[in-house]
Amino acid sequence: MKRPNLNQNVSVINGTEVIHRRIPILLMVSIIILLMMILFVIGMMIGYGILHSPMDVFKSSTWTHLLKLTGSES
């Protein structure tokens, strides 16, 4: 059998070894999603900041102009 790492807790339940994680999977997934959202916003600020002010990304007028430009506004 595999030897557990030092960071993992092992217990035996009904004759089966169960390895408990220090960071649960749900917490890890939510941290990754949060980091992706933060990096998306930073990327938008850098991309838009080349031509204009980076803080203009958060203005609604920027997004309405973008929707009109692409023809996506309904």
End-to-end Cα distance, whole Å, is 60 Å
* Shape verdict: elongated
Spans of at least 5 consecutive residues with low confidence: none
Main sheet attributes: strand count, strand direction, barrel closure = 2 strands, antiparallel
Write out the strand line-up for the largest beta sheet, numbering strands in chain order. 1-2
Share of residues in helices: 40-55%
DSSP strand content: 5-15%
Class computed from helices, strands and strand pairing: alpha+beta
Mean residue pLDDT: 84
Put simply, the count of helices is 2
Order of helices and strands, N to C? EEHH
Return Rg in Å: 23 Å
3D architecture notes:
By secondary structure, the chain is an alpha+beta fold. Helices cover 49% and strands 14% of the residues. It has two helices and two strands. Strands 1-2 form a two-stranded antiparallel sheet. The model has no long low-confidence stretch (mean pLDDT 84).
Essential attributes:
74 residues, alpha+beta, two-stranded antiparallel ribbon, 2 helices, 2 strands, elongated
Summary, kept brief:
The chain has two helices and two strands, in the order E-E-H-H. With 74 residues, it is an alpha+beta fold. A hairpin with a 2-residue loop joins strand 1 and strand 2.
Task: Itemize the secondary structure elements and their pairings.
Layout: E1 9-13, E2 16-20, H1 25-49, H2 60-70
Antiparallel strand pairs: 1-2
